[in-house]
Amino acid sequence: MLYNSGQRTSRLLTGISLKPLENALVWLMGLIVAFGLLIATDTRSVLYIALLLMAIHLVSIGAVIVIALLCMVTLTSMFLYEGGLHRWESITQWLGNLSVLAAITLVALRGKQVSDNLRHKEVYMVGAQRLTQTACFGFRADLQTMGWSEQAARILEYPSGTAPSASLFLARTHPDDLPLVLASFERAARHESLIEVKHRLLMPDGRIKHVHMFATPLFTRHGCFEYLGALMDVTARKLAEKALYRAQTQLAHVTRVTSLGELAASIAHEVNQPLAAITSSGQACLNWLNRPQPDLPEARQALERIIASASRASEITHRVRALSRKSDPLRQSESLNDIVKETLSLVRHELAHHKISPKIELAAFGGQVSADRVQLQQVIINLIINACQAMEKVKAPGRTLLIRTWVKDNEVMLEVTDQGAGIPSDVLPQLFTPFFTTKENGLGMGLCICRSIIDFHEGRIWATSAIDKGSSFVFALPILVANEPGYAAAI
Ligand code: ADP
Known about the structure:
The chain is an alpha+beta fold. It is 55% helix and 18% strand. The protein folds into four domains: 40-128; 133-233, PAS domain (Beta-Lactamase, 2-Layer Sandwich), CATH 3.30.450; 243-328; 330-491, Histidine kinase-like ATPase, C-terminal domain (Heat Shock Protein 90). It has helices at residues 8-14, 20-39, 43-58, 61-81, 88-132, 150-156, 166-172, 178-189, 235-262, 264-290, 296-324, 336-353, 373-390, 446-456, 485-490; strands at 134-140, 146-148, 195-202, 208-221, 224-233, 332-335, 357-361, 368-371, 400-408, 411-417, 460-466, 470-478.
C-alpha cells in the first residue's frame, strides 16, 4: 500500500482525472447497461456478467476480452439453438444481452486499465521512494489526521501498518528540534503556502537521523487545510558532508604544514633576529651592571629591550604554532588588514631571500570579515609563495610583489600581483583544480585548498594574467558591517 492513513489525504495521491470525452463515453456505457438491463436481461446473462466482473479482478486484460467473447458466443449459440430468430421478443432480448455484455466489458476493461496503471505507478513510486530515501506524508493543518507512506514508517522506524499520527511523528523528533517542528505545524495552522524544515530524528537506540521535510497545502474542505509533502532521509548525505569537511580540514592542515616547511628558513631568521638582540642586550646589561659604579638606568633600558625582543620572538613562535596546529576552523570577526600584516611578518625574510620588494596598499577602512584567521593566513601565504616562485626567472631589481586590500560594494578584496611570466589563458581555468601543477616538485593542491577555504568563507577567488607581465590572484569576502559602524559611510 502506498499510503497508510486511509484518511482524506490519501485520495489526493490516487485521484484519477478522466478526460471529458472519456467521461461522456462512460456515461453512455452506463446508460446502455441500464437500458439493456431494463429491457433484456435474463438470469443467464446475469451469470455471464458476474463471471465477467470476477474475471476483471483475477486475470489479465487479454483474458478478460477472451472471456467476454466466449460469453457472447455462448449467448448467441443458445439463442440460435433455441430458435430465437423466429421470435421478435427473443431477438430484442438477445440484442439487449449482447449490448449489456459489451458495454460492461468496455467499462470494466477501462477500469482495469486505470487500476493496472495505478498499480504500476504505485510500484514505481514505492521503488523511487526506497531508492531516494524519500517518503510522502500528509496532514491536516489542525493535526487531527496524519498519513504517511510505508517509506515514512521505515524512516521513522515504526512497524509497517502502524497508524500514523502527529504524536508518533513528534515522538521521533529530536528534543532539541521539537520547537522547530512545532513551529512548522503552527505555520501550517496559519495556512502558509510552503513549509520546509530540516531537522533531526532521535531513534529509540540513540541514533540520530537527519531529515528534510517539505509540504504544501493541496486543498481545503469545510475550512480544513490539508498538506501533502515529502520527507527525505538525508542522514547519509549529512555524514558524507561531514566526512568531506573533515578530509578538507585535514588536507588544509597538511598543506599548511608543507608551506610552513617551505618557510622554515624565513621563520628561523625571524626568530633569530630577536634572539640575537636579546643576547646583545643581555651582554650590554651585564656590562652596565659590572661597572664599579653600576649604571642602573642603562641596565634597565637594556632589560626593556630584552623583554621587547623576547615578546617579538614569542609572537612569531605563537603564529607558527597556530599555523601548524590541527584545529577545526573557527570563524570570528577579523580585520583582513591585520591578517595581512601578521602574515607578512612570517614571509618577510622569504621575500628578501628572493630579492622581491613588497609593495603593500591596505584599504583605509580596513575590512572586517567573518574569518578563521589561520585559514586566511594560509591562503595569503600560498599566494605569496606562488608569486615568489613565479618571479624566480625575473631579473632581480624588477621583482615587485603588490599586495592590496580594498572595499568594494559589500566585499573586502585582497589582491596579490606578481611580475612573473604570467599564465597562458588555456591554463587559467585549471589553476584551482586538484593536483594541477606545472612545477617539478609541486603538489598542485595549494590553489585548490585556497578555493575551498574561500568557499567556506562564502567568498570568491579568481586569477587574471597577462603573458610576460605577471599574474594577479584576487579573493573577495563578504564584509562584516555589524562591528564596524564606519563601513556604512565607507560603502
Ligand atoms: P603548486 O604550487 O604545488 O604547483 P598550486 O595549486 O599552488 O600548486 O599552483 C598550481 C599551479 O598554478 C602552479 O603549478 C603554477 O603553474 C600555477 N600558478 C600558481 N600561482 C601562479 C603565479 N603567481 N604565476 C604563475 N603561475 C602560477
